[in-house]
Design brief:
mainly alpha; single chain; elongated; 3 helices
Amino acid sequence: MGLVEDFNAWLGNAEGWLWTWLGMPVVGLLALYFTLRTGAVQFRMLPAMFQSIRENPQSDEGAKHDTK
C-alpha cells in the first residue's frame, strides 16, 4: 500500500477510537450538564406538551376572511 492509503487507514482507526472512547463520554457529560443547568426542562414540560396537544384550537374571531 502507498503512503496515502496507510494514512487513510490510520485516520479511519483514529476516528473510530476518538468517537468511541472520547466523543461519546464528552457528549454524555454535556447532556448531563445541560440537563442539570436548565433544571431538566425537557422533563418538567412534558405535561404541558401533552396538554397543548390535546386541547382544541381556539378560533380567532378577528381573523375571519370574506369569501366574496
